[in-house]
Design brief:
Keywords: Ion transport, Membrane, Transmembrane, Transmembrane helix, Transport. It comes from Nannocystis radixulma. It is a multi-pass membrane protein. Its main location: membrane. The chain has 633 residues and is an alpha/beta fold. Helices cover 40% and strands 17% of the residues. The protein is built from 20 helices and 22 strands. Strands 3-2-1-4-5-6 form a six-stranded parallel sheet, with helices on both faces. A six-stranded parallel sheet has the order 13-12-11-14-15-16. A four-stranded antiparallel sheet has the order 7-10-8-9. Helix 3 packs across helix 4, helix 5 crosses helix 6 and helix 8 packs parallel to helix 9. It is elongated. The termini are far apart. The mean pLDDT is 83.
Length: 633
């Protein structure tokens, strides 16, 4: 290889210097300007061409340097020069050199500012936040999640959320502004991969109060979540502090591995059972979805766990009446045991904490003022009717179908039947994977659930309950919700023509379609993405809520039911809610609220649901109204 020439070496060094960035480029221009001025001043001094001053003496070298700098900065200074033609032409050359240098400087500065703005747009600067919530990933659930976090942090001045995702920062900022509007919570976005340690360092995990790992869409979602948890765990170990982690998991096979990575304290949410349990429970009880939405949303009444020393020595039954603005669900004992609810005659011990539904954490106070119960307002105490076999119609196939059928089997009486209608032709074998169902017989019929001819041939009015699942495979979210609405419209028309009323519960993916779908008159909607976001936000604020929700949604033990009000109080009687609490307590149940049938389709009145009402408020419950209770069956 031939030896590089001096010109090539000089050009190589110049290119390297210019490639170092704006600072190096400005330094190069400064050197060029300085050399130009020094050379010019030296030539004028040595040649004797420098002009004379007011005192008749030649202008000094330092003065020439200053004059040259002024010509380089301001070409207009040429007009004020006085001297012979040689001096004037030399000054003109300095001005031309200055025009070149400062034009280049303006270009360099413009490019530099452009680079700064581009770096800001890319979101690559370090986040300096403390006690903030970190969200890793960007999915369709982010809108509901941010809304709930803003509600949860409304009373925390300076609350902030930091989002790290492989998404354009400007696009994320625009969406955040659209979702939150003027909410005081500060949201900072950064572009990067949660799997890359250098990018994770941008969000300051060591100072975060909680970290939420969003599950992306697609078949490999759990793989991405697991790798993210590994990256977060390693970053936390190096920072010397493991943050509270909440993650969405879609497969129980991944759950055990994730536990090994982040430990038992992390809030890992297995979403298919969560959605399936709520869907099944709601499908059998109209209005329950509104109850769960209220419980899980920070904009209404939610669950709190607090120490209440004033209850020491009181039994749980007595404590039910000790609150005017809160409703008890259970007790966290001093030994860490969770009782939902405990035996009604169990006394509170020092260190026990109540699990209560209340408007806010500062409203869980012992302020009850119970009034004497009017015995004539109570309904006769008789057992609830024995469960009978049910016929359930399930329309559509989704990833939740197997889980839905198994959850349904845990609630229905022996001899119940389920008819599944979907487009899958080989579904029978897959539905029985993992063992036969104990109480339910499954039948499968192939057909398009949006086809009116298929629905007309199902004897829709003969079923006790109807579940419509979102068909997501091979379809967009909007297309799946559109098919659900078409199916609901057909079902309501069929039932209207037969003069029958069958409860219909459907799964929707996008909460924005909820109001549009209301024209179908379905009894309940389960908004999958919103439900998951609500649970994630609750657990990110309080890690112990995860176990409480698991108890409420499990078929074992006590669950939330909406039971006929006539089983508790006399229809039409003018009572306060303390009377309802007493009626439920005599059955070993906890009254949490009620639902008025007259407002069951009115979204402005929460579809008739009043959760945790003031116990002294008067109410009249009719024969068609229901009482929301925590009961075993």
């Amino acid at each position: 290889m031939p030896r590089a020439t001096f010109k090539q070496r000089l050009r190589y060094r110049f290119d390297n210097a210019m490639a170092r960035g704006v600072g190096s480029q400005i330094a190069m221009l400064a050197i060029v300007t300085l050399v130009l001025i020094l050379v010019t001043s030296t030539v004028l001094t040595v040649s004797g061409l420098s002009p004379h001053g007011a005192d008749g003496e030649r202008v000094s070298f330092g003065r020439l340097v200053w004059v040259g700098l002024m010509h380089a900065i301001d070409p207009g200074a040429v007009g004020s020069d006085v001297g012979d033609w040689a001096f004037l032409f030399i000054m003109l050359a300095v001005s031309f050199g200055g025009i070149f240098v400062f034009s280049a400087l303006i270009g360099v500065l413009t490019g530099g500012f452009g680079d700064i703005l581009e770096r800001l747009r890319k979101g690559r600067s370090m986040v300096i936040e403390r006690d903030h919530t970190v969200i890793l990933g960007w999915t369709g659930k982010i809108h509901a999640l941010l809304t709930e976090l803003a509600e949860a942090n409304a009373n925390r001045p300076g609350a902030s959320v930091v989002i790290l995702a492989e998404h354009d920062k400007v696009a994320m900022d625009d969406e955040v502004r659209t979702v939150l509007g003027d909410a005081p919570m500060r949201v900072v976005t950064r572009t990067g991969s949660p799997l890359v340690r250098r990018d994770l360092d941008l969000v300051n995990l060591g100072e975060a109060r909680s970290v939420i790992v969003m599950s992306p869409d697609g078949p490999e979602a759990d793989t991405v979540v697991l790798k993210t948890l590994l990256a977060v765990s390693k970053a936390g170990a190096q920072a010397g502090k493991q943050p509270h982690v909440v993650a969405e998991i879609k497969s129980d096979k991944t759950l055990s591995v994730a536990r090994m990575v982040v430990g038992d304290a992390a809030g890992l949410i297995l979403t298919p059972p969560l959605i399936s349990r709520v869907l099944v429970q709601t499908g059998r009880q109209s209005g329950l979805s509104v109850v769960y939405t209220e419980l899980l949303s920070f904009s209404g009444d939610e669950i709190y766990i607090q120490t209440q020393p004033q209850l020491a020595g009181k039994t749980f039954r007595e404590a039910l009446f000790a609150y005017e603005d809160s409703a008890l669900l259970g007790v966290y004992t001093a030994a860490g045991e969770r009782l939902m609810p405990p035996p009604f005659d169990r006394p509170f011990e020092p260190g026990d904490q109540v699990i209560a539904i209340s408007r806010d954490d500062d409203t869980v106070i012992v302020n009850g003022r119970p009034t004497p119960v009017a015995e004539d307002a109570l309904a006769p105490l008789h057992p609830h009717a024995a469960p009978r076999p049910e016929r359930t119609l399930v329309l559509g196939e989704s990833q939740l179908l197997q889980q839905v059928l198994r959850e349904l089997d845990a609630y229905v009486a022996p001899g119940s039947t389920v008819l599944v209608v979907c487009e899958a032709r080989h579904l029978d074998a897959r539905l029985t994977e993992g063992g036969e169902l104990a109480h339910t017989t499954i039948q499968v019929r192939v057909g398009d659930v949006t086809d009116r001819g298929v629905l007309d041939g199902l004897d829709v009015p003969g079923f006790d309950n109807i579940l419509v699942l979102a068909e997501t495979e091979g379809r967009t979210q909007e297309m799946a919700d559109s098919r659900t609405m078409i199916t609901l419209l057909h079902l309501r028309d069929i039932l209207r023509r037969h003069g029958k009323a069958v409860p219909i519960t459907s799964e929707m993916l996008d909460g924005q379609n909820r109001e549009l779908a209301a024209v179908t008159e379905a009894d309940d909607f389960i908004i999958s993405n919103t439900l998951v976001s609500l649970v994630v936000s609750q657990i990110s604020e309080n890690r112990r809520i995860a176990a409480v929700l698991d108890d409420l949604l499990s078929p074992d033990g006590h669950e939330i039911y909406l039971k006929p009000a006539r089983d508790y109080v006399q229809p039409g009687a003018d009572i306060d809610f303390y009377t309802v609490v007493e009626a439920a307590a005599r059955r070993g149940e906890v009254a949490l609220g009620y639902r008025l049938a007259a407002h069951a389709h009115d979204p402005e009145r929460a579809y008739g649901v009043a959760l945790n009402p003031r116990k002294s408020a008067r109410v009249r419950l009719g024969a068609g109204d229901r009482v929301v209770v925590l009961a075993e069956r």
